Amino acid sequence: MSRFRLEIRVVPRPGLLDPEGKAIQSALHSLDYEQVHEVSVGKLLYLNVEAASSEHAREGAEAMCKRLLANPVTEDFEIDVGEAVEQTVPA
Amino acid sequence: MKVAIVTFPGSNCDYDLYKCVQLVGGQPEFRWHRDVDLGEVDVVMLPGGFSYGDYLRAGAIATMSPIMDAVKEFAKSGGPVLGICNGFQMLCESGLLPGALLRNRSLLFSSRDVLLRVENTASIFTQEYESGQILRMPIAHAEGNYHADDETLDCLEGEGRVLFRYANAEGKAVDGANPNGSARSIAGILNESGNVMGMMPHPERAVESILGSVDGLGLFDGLLAQLSVGTL
Known about the structure:
CATH class of chain B: Alpha Beta
Shape of chain A: elongated
Mean pLDDT of chain B: 96
Distance between the termini of chain B: 11 Å
Largest interface: A-B, 11 and 20 residues
Largest sheet of chain A: 3 strands, antiparallel
CATH superfamily of chain B: Class I glutamine amidotransferase (GATase) domain
Oligomer: heterodimer
Structural class of chain B: alpha/beta
Mean pLDDT of chain A: 92
Radius of gyration of chain A: 17 Å
CATH architecture of chain A: 2-Layer Sandwich
Order of helices and strands of chain B: EHEEHEHEEEEHEEEH
Helix content of chain B: 10-25%
Number of strands of chain A: 3
Structural class of chain A: alpha+beta
Radius of gyration of chain B: 16 Å
CATH topology of chain B: Rossmann fold
Shape of chain B: globular
Strand content of chain B: 15-25%
CATH topology of chain A: Mth169, Chain: A
Strand order of the largest sheet of chain B: 2-1-3-4-11-10-9-6-7
Number of helices of chain A: 2
Low-confidence stretches of chain A: none
Distance between the termini of chain A: 11 Å
CATH architecture of chain B: 3-Layer(aba) Sandwich
Low-confidence stretches of chain B: none
Number of strands of chain B: 11
């Protein structure tokens, strides 16, 4: 087994009302950053997981997103699996 | 009527519900989120509050509590389940009700009285009311902006499963009367089999005149009346 560092981004589904993104956008406009469009705000999660391979690590993370980390009605998710950070020795 | 009121870490309307159930002559009993068994009860109520500090998403962590398996079983077997505010968010997060509750469009936590229009009185939760009746009760939430895709919203409306809408004093569901941006001004909905209901406003805080309104009483009175005559 190896330990993998996962980065999971949970983002509001495009087209969905995102009042927080809108508020940040208008705050940026008030600072004269008129070039800013379509701000959306999501969550970034880091997890260290044990898995036999990076594929297994990803499959596990997908299940976690579907069951808890993302709301299937309003959010999408993206998963990045990093390099194995360390080998774990079986007890 | 034995009512299980489930307390989660961060619930803050559990005692309001307890008092309210007593007021209408029911027998309230607290259940802790770590309990695995509801016991012999007629109704389950999920109270408002900020379970688990609203971490991740409002209501999301609470749905992983041990008691929720029993609540789901109870709902599946036809038992009446009422979720108010954070309880409504839990019901959506657990899939017992469709849709989701997003951040209010104002981004603000909103704590004030609103007016609701009763949309359908043919439910165990609304049979004491008249269709089109205007009710006053408080809201207190930051994530009450009901969202579902158009197909789901059409289905809810088509099947009479929208029980309450935000409206003005004339009974019009205008945008200005919508406190949080909810799709089609929806304030409370019913599940497909008619035994699970969720709503953002607080009927349990509108049950004594000293609270400013008694318009929430009808919901609890109606539920008790039906359970007493054994129609449920």
